[in-house]
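Batch job 17 of 40 flagged for manual review because the log was empty.
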Amino acid sequence: MAQDDRNRFEYRIGDEVSFAAGHGMQYGEIARIVTPGPDGAIEILWEDGRREIKKTRDRAIRLLRRASGASELDEHRGGRRRGFDNEISEVRRDDARRRHG
């Protein structure tokens, strides 16, 4: 994944974000979309009550959780299904039974 592709999604009101500042991490929630789009701006309501407008392309801002509850990782994975194979788990269970029983 290219570095610029990380922030290609649109922020929505209520999304929880973090911001890597020089003095530590800040956490907040999107209060308002000032300018929509990839070159837009968002207003963030920080935990301490401050409001600040940041550009959406700022690489220090990370999506923690969507207002719907999805994480950034869920957002990137989209419709992909989890890598799970029933045969592998069955073999693991059989091996565990042989060792312990």
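Reviewer: the log was empty due to a logging misconfiguration, but the result itself is present. The beta strands are 16-21, 24-35, 41-46, 51-55, 61-65. Unflagging and moving on to job 18.
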